[in-house]
């Protein structure tokens, strides 16, 4: 099977899992009833009691937001990992998500913010941290210097993430119990607050960022040859890399603003897609990210309550549980290859 067919298979998996998420679970909906609910909603007719609300205001926006968040995180992680040629280079590891988290918790605890204000603070925090990390990591040209800059970016991100993690812990300790619980829910990353407004904002953001990424995809392939080779082919290396970083950060930031820092999706999507397809592929990373979020949320919303006596887990708890052993496995296999 060629890489395009494997990528298409990942896309088909997203469609199937989307259908499973919407139709099955604690409240099942038949396919005819689903299309009837959609038709009634579009026509403005009389709604079906109970079913219309569950599908249109709960299941459907939750599933759509899960796909959009997975696509955004998958593209962001895949872009960072491809650009820096390092599987550890994801927003989770290099501090982007921690910047969003620290800013959001600060807004909740200190200023009593909620809703859109928290999302705006998370967006500003992610971009601010990204600017600092990029400024620290800049320097030189050529493939060796490029690798060194990538390593500096990761190390700077890890250091900043540790500092911001301490800030978050201090704010959580300082806050009262009620405020701390609100911040903790956001920090875990959850689709429980999914609604059509959040879907609309994230969809509008992706409508701008995905075409921008498509324009930068060609120069990205040139950068994989090294800075000198790319410059020889007429690529403005610094400008292109800056555009790629801004796009990747914006993708992670808007996804984090929509549902909180859903852990390790950006980190997992790229390496898994690469093993499925055979080489780095941004579309495959996007589909893989959507699959991870949909599968994790289905487990958290429908399976976990059966095991934990009705407790609905945030989706970030499930993805975090998947990401930690995958990181250890990735490090172990990398060391084995180098030995």
Summarize the structure in words.
- The structure is a single chain.
- This protein is mostly helical and 339 residues long.
- The protein has one domain (3-338): ABC transporter involved in vitamin B12 uptake, BtuC (Orthogonal Bundle), CATH 1.10.3470.10.
- Helix content is 79%, strand content 0%.
- It has 13 helices and no strands.
- It has helices at 3-23, 31-43, 51-84, 96-109, 116-137, 143-174, 177-188, 196-223, 227-232, 237-259, 265-277, 282-307, 315-338.
- 44% of the residues are buried.
- Mean pLDDT is 85; it is low at 140-145.
Treating each run of at least 4 consecutive H or I residues as one helix, how many helices?
13
The total beta strand count reads 0
Class derived from helix and strand content: mainly alpha
Reading the helices and strands in chain order gives HHHHHHHHHHHHH
**Portion in strands:** under 5%
Rounded to the nearest angstrom, the radius of gyration is 20 Å
Kindly report the average pLDDT value.
85
Low-confidence stretches: 140-145
The portion of residues assigned to helices is over 70%
Write down the overall geometry: globular
The name of the CATH superfamily reads: ABC transporter involved in vitamin B12 uptake, BtuC
Gap between N and C termini: 32 Å
User: Main sheet, how many strands, which sense, barrel?
Assistant: none
Domain count, please report it.
Answer: 1
CATH architecture: Orthogonal Bundle
Q: Under the CATH scheme, which class? A: Mainly Alpha
**CATH-derived topology:** ABC transporter involved in vitamin B12 uptake, BtuC
